[in-house]
């Protein structure tokens, strides 16, 4: 957002002046048409960038990027507990409510070849350890073979009716790409893989300790029951 107290004056030679917002830097970019990148800082907590095209337009094209404060809050996240997500009904859920819980975070799908085995074992694992501090967080995702095409309501009904899922199921999200949910960007950056950080398929799993730190990551083909020993270790169960 351009600071409202600053006045930008455009001349034929694209002279830029600001009444109250000092010019921090102006850099000529080599691409054509020629354009100038300006940063204004009347408020040190806000970074505002504007791109002014010199040729072919009578008015400047402005692009406002996110403030430094917004970027800092996302990049400074120290744990899963720093994030707020949407539940299946669109309500905000502050993940700090899970402080003191061991979390297994899974991207789920209803029409995958891994659906039956994973949903069945997730329900078994949850039933066995939910009273001892385990919470499973399921995030539907339709990015892999379009195998989660339903609405949130249909997804919840499927999981709860067919597989007796008692753990929370959240809003459908992207886990890869530019629109990936912030929580998944954090999970992937915390535990990358040799072939890249991206989620490979449905039912990738992240194990999170009681302090919200990602301690392990498992492939989609890793069965939930096979990581029971890791869950017990974090729960402090002998």
Structure write-up:
This protein is α+β, with helices and mostly antiparallel strands. The protein has a domain at 80-235: 3-Layer(aba) Sandwich (Glutaredoxin). Helix content is 21%, strand content 20%. The protein has helices at 68-75, 115-129, 152-162, 182-190, 228-235; strands at 23-29, 35-40, 48-53, 84-86, 92-94, 102-108, 134-140, 205-208, 214-218. The strands form 3 sheets. A 4-stranded mixed beta sheet has the order 7-6-8-9, with helices on one face. A hairpin with a 7-residue loop joins strand 2 (35-40) and strand 3. The chain starts with 22 loop residues before the first strand and ends with a helix.
The number of distinct helices, counting runs of at least 4 residues, comes to: 5
**Helix content percent band:** 10-25%
Mean pLDDT level: 77
Which stretches are poorly predicted, pLDDT < 50 over at least 5 residues?
A: 1-74
CATH class of the domain at 80-235: Alpha Beta
Structural class: alpha+beta
CATH architecture of the domain at 80-235: 3-Layer(aba) Sandwich
User: Within the CATH hierarchy, at the fold level, what is the topology of the domain at 80-235?
Assistant: Glutaredoxin
Q: Biggest sheet: strands side by side, in what order?
A: 7-6-8-9
* Largest beta-sheet characterization: 4 strands, mixed
Structural Rg:
23 Å
N-to-C order of helices and strands: EEEHEEEHEHHEEH
Q: Strand content of the residues, in percent?
A: 15-25%
By CATH, the superfamily of the domain at 80-235 comes out as Glutaredoxin
Shape category: globular
Query: Termini separation (Å)?
Result: 55 Å
């Amino acid at each position: 957002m351009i600071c409202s107290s600053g006045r930008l004056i455009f001349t034929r030679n694209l002279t830029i002046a600001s009444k109250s917002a000092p010019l921090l830097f102006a850099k000529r970019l080599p691409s054509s048409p020629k354009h100038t990148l300006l940063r204004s800082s009347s408020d040190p907590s806000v970074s505002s960038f504007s791109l002014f095209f010199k040729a072919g337009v009578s008015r400047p094209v402005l692009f406002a990027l996110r403030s430094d404060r917004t970027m800092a809050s996302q990049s400074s996240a120290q744990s899963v507990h720093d994030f707020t997500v949407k539940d299946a009904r669109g309500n905000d859920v502050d993940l700090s409510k899970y402080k003191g819980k061991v979390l297994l975070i899974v991207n789920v799908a209803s029409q995958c070849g891994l659906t039956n085995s994973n949903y069945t074992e997730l329900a078994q694992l949850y039933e066995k350890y939910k009273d001892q501090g385990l919470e499973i967080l399921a995030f539907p995702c339709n990015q892999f073979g379009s195998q989660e095409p339903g609405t949130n309501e249909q997804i919840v009904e499927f999981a709860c009716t067919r597989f007796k899922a008692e753990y929370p199921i959240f809003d459908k999200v992207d886990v890869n790409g530019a629109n990936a949910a912030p929580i998944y960007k954090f999970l992937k950056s915390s535990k990358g893989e040799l072939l890249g950080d991206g989620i490979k398929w449905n039912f990738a799993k992240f194990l999170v300790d009681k302090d919200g730190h990602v301690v392990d990551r498992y492939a989609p083909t890793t069965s939930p029951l096979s990581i029971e020993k890791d869950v017990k270790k974090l729960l402090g169960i002998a």
